[in-house]
Amino acid sequence: MNGNSAQKIVPVLLSGGTGSRLWPLSRELYPKQFLPLCSDRTMLQDTALRVSAQPGSTGPGSTQPGAAAEVVFSAPLVICNQEHRFLAAEQLRQSRCTPRGIILEPAGRNTAAACALAALAVTADAPDALLLILPADHEIRDADAFRRAIAIAARAAQAGRLVTFGITPTRPETGYGYIRRGHSMDEADGAYNVAAFVEKPSLEVAERYLAEGTYAWNSGMFLFPAARLLAELERHAPAVLAACREALEQGSRDLDFFRLDAAAFAKAPSISIDYAVMERTDRAAVVPCEIGWTDVGAWSALWDVGSKDGEGNVAVGDVLLEGARDCYVRSDNHLTAVVGVENAVVVVVDDAVLVADRSCAQDVKRIVDRLKAEGRSESVSHRRVHRPWGSYQSLHTGDRFQVKSLTIAPGSRLSLQKHHHRAEHWVVVNGTALVTRGEEQVMVYENQSIYIPIGTVHRLENPGKVPLTIIEVQSGSYLGEDDIVRLEDVYGRN
């Protein structure tokens, strides 16, 4: 493989997750890949840009001469939860990334199903493709080293191997699985046969792995020959492959997305690609690499990669520190002062505050589990809820009334709808609104208002070129979001 005959690689961005480990910033409807945690861009955007720039370009995915110049990427394929489809599409649009496609999962079925879907979809028109499987919520600080590792992995993949990327350990980490490498591959200098996959070890065992030098962290990133992956799935996980094939065959197009058939996809066993294939195949290979990688699996990981002050603190947002040491403090929209505290995580958002010892950061998931068990909305969404047309935020709720702020993007509109139990009063505070109310259409300008009676068919649109901001006052006997009867919807939510 050389620079003139480089085989294109199809990046597959896995954008799943439930948002539990970085609560309260990350939520079920807005998980960490959609958040700007490690840069000014979201993690999904960083992942897409990392595999978009071509050799000789500049920016976050630029390359240096040498092995990295052999890597050429095609447009990415995105696999995401159907509830996140508009978030994913909009963030990719903002990054000027046009995906090969966006496949919507009606339910999470782990990474074996996602990899099977990617291989089936891509081999339909590119049977010789190589698939680069990338979780969309990982941080990689050395993009050039990553490309060089991909170039090595591509040579191994062209030899028919299923390749994983092993991160050279920097500490005796007990939170990751490990890979023990075997003999080096003749076909690809820098790639090795996999001798064993090892579960998360105890501290004592992890220290031994670090000292021996033949173990790497299992990154969860892979490079597969698509056709070979299908053959290995047929051999080791036929139920996963069959369910995914049926889900694709019975699925349908929806705007710019592809919806899997829910009933067929539900038949797929929920299992990781590691367990389903990599630990069973005799074709597994590993490329050890040092690429500045972290899976951002807890708040402590963001402290690890963050820019620290002289006392070892990472501060994000409106934060004041006094006598604090080795803390991670993040505050959105509120002044947060931390005094005389060590090794703490403090995260402040509009509707929740988290305070934890940094060593217990992995236990945040237990709080999310408790919130879910109690049916509390703080595990699912923020006060600001994103919709394909913009967003809304609840400002105040009382007896039989609720006040919200709505922001509608230029050129966007809500569904044509009605409510059985509530009336709505809209006040325009910025922009211009085009309101459908029954049989009439009304232009409503700044500082003007309009009333929508109970049961009236209505629609709100932004015909302008600037965001439209509305204060909405709802009044009635029931104010839940499920009291919406959609009669027409450009986003396919009828």
Automatic annotation (TrEMBL):
EC class, as a word, reads transferase
Does the keyword field hold GTP-binding?
yes
Q: Which UniProt keywords apply?
A: GTP-binding, Isomerase, Nucleotide-binding, Nucleotidyltransferase, Plasmid, Transferase
Catalytic activities:
alpha-D-mannose 1-phosphate + GTP + H(+) = GDP-alpha-D-mannose + diphosphate
- GO BP term, pick one: GDP-mannose biosynthetic process
Q: Matching PANTHER family, A to Z?
A: MANNOSE-1-PHOSPHATE GUANYLYLTRANSFERASE
- Protein name as annotated: mannose-1-phosphate guanylyltransferase
Q: What is the lineage of its organism?
A: Bacteria, Pseudomonadati, Pseudomonadota, Alphaproteobacteria, Rhodospirillales
